[in-house]
Specification:
globular, mainly alpha, single chain, Serine Threonine Protein Phosphatase 5, Tetratricopeptide repeat
């Protein structure tokens, strides 16, 4: 499974406002590599778009932890 291609797909889904499909794709990446660059920031953004502030905040926290 090519994680770079999946991330590109997720980014495309995000710009197409297909947020649920985007999250599904991001979850696939996260299961394979939870340290994939940018994954938690994009997840936070998409959860924010979906109105799920709790998940958005958790993803932001995870992104901050990984940047330390």
């Amino acid at each position: 499974m090519d994680l770079d291609a999946l991330f590109a797909k997720a980014a495309w889904l995000a710009t197409s406002e297909e947020y649920e499909k985007c999250i599904e794709t991001l979850e696939t990446i996260t299961k394979r590599d939870p340290f994939y660059p940018g994954i938690w920031m994009l997840k936070a953004k998409i959860y924010g778009q979906l109105g799920n502030e709790k998940m958005a905040r958790l993803c932001l926290e995870r992104a901050e932890e990984q940047s330390l």
